[in-house]
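Predict the assembly for these two chains.
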Amino acid sequence: QQPVQSPQAVILREGEDAVINCSSSKALYSVHWYRQKHGEAPVFLMILLKGGEQKGHDKISASFNEKKQQSSLYLTASQLSYSGTYFCGTERTGANNLFFGTGTRLTVIP
Amino acid sequence: EAGVAQSPRYKIIEKRQSVAFWCNPISGHATLYWYQQILGQGPKLLIQFQNNGVVDDSQLPKDRFSAERLKGVDSTLKIQPAKLEDSAVYLCASSLAGRGTEAFFGQGTRLTVV
């Protein structure tokens, strides 16, 4: 039931781009993206509800491929503040529960 | 707007003891989640309430864990007896309507079982 994320970890220099992927073996109703900094609670980034939907704010955006049961989070021109662990959360079609993935640890260095 | 409140923030107990965590969700939020987050891992859903009814508790170790949501508002998660592997951060989250809506997390309770 838990979605799978890749990569597990990535290190970027400021200004570089990154893509984080999230995939499920089950049909999905929605995908949520959160960022968690060390010792803090996860903070909501965005939710995607429709197949093919893309959302974004600032330089962080995401897409949802309903047919492939996958979502990707795109971070462009990364900033130091982007460092943290990114989690995708998924709600399956026909179910009413929110499961989180294994996480991707992103480190942005100067 | 007040966020999700949890207490205590930290708790240290010996194995085989019991412990309880409390959560007060955002006012008006119908859905309440309890997650267990072991260091270095993603949050694991323990139980999800819709108002005061249980939506999912498939990953709750029911021989030692229990949870209730009083009058569809506050919730308590209990562990009795605790094991060493229960050491984790216990996160409470709430959302306005559950499915398809943003979940807001509390600061969590860090439990250490020695």
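DSSP finds no helices and eleven strands in chain A. The interface with chain B takes residues 1-2, 29-30, 32, 40-44, 47, 49, 87, 89, 91, 95-103 of chain A (CB under 8 Å).
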